[in-house]
Amino acid sequence: MSDLPVLPSFLVADAVRAALKEDLGRAGDITSNATIPMGARATAEIAARKPGVLAGLALAERAFREVDSAVRFTATRADGDALAPGDVVAELEGPARAILAGERVALNFLCHLSGVATATRALVARVAHTRARICDTRKTLPGLRAFEKYAVRCGGGSNHRFGLDDAVLIKDNHIAVAGGVGTAIAAARAFAGHLVKIEVEVDTLDQLREAIACGPDAVLLDNMSPDELREAVGVIGGRAIAEASGNVTLETVAAIAEAGVDMISSGWITHSAPSLDLGLDVTMT
Questions:
Q1: Handedness of CA 207, 208, 213, 216 (dihedral sign)
Q2: What pTM was computed for the model?
Q3: Which domain CATH number covers 245?
Q4: How many structural domains are present in the chain?
Q5: What CATH number corresponds to the domain at position 16?
Q6: pLDDT above 90 for 87
Q7: What positions carry a catalytic annotation?
Q8: Same domain membership, residue 263 and residue 138
Q9: Shortest CA distance to 88 belongs to which of 123, 143, 48?
């Protein structure tokens, strides 16, 4: 997909090195070192075993290159591509020990991120007949947020805020401490810079009416039924972005989208997406 963001190379390098350090430990791959001659070379293919959407090639490639720069990694598909069982996504050639030492780290990233992309694509397909867009949340695995949000883009989704520092999202606990919806929005407006968007979470139509009167940029409609969402969209009247969240599943997402919201956010697509089954098979040369 040509509109995908580019993952910063230093983020890729840091994540892969941390994963390799965890896996190789103090002594390296003692199984491969014990059973495979030092000079042995191999070729290998990484292929899909289940249908899905590809994401994470840059991390997979880096895993092998970090183990041994002599490993040649050739991607045969691109992130964002739909995969059928048997589709080859990459070919490798180089020192056999290095290919086997990097295999699990490469596949861990590739399978997990492809699972995120696949889950996202499934939701996107269910709302394709509406204007709604699927987006992620901050419910990500620690240390993997940038990559999981990249995978959401690979699946055709959109990104919500990346952290607490790039947008204001006033949630129920903020409202409780601040003393009310209007008070919280006014304080946020006075504090935030002119480029910072302000969103407020509401779970009733009365809260929504109070919030809209204060002019937020977006409103998060939390755990509302499709009928409530439809009424909420009418109350908003195009004055703010309407985002629905809560109870978003493959079975419910179409009805949520048909209520007329602009965005539908899902934590499931990052924190609970099943891994896509991809495997690496080696041939000795």
A1: positive
A2: 0.95
A3: 3.20.20.70
A4: 2
A5: 3.90.1170.20
A6: yes
A7: 104, 139, 171, 201, 222
A8: yes
A9: 48
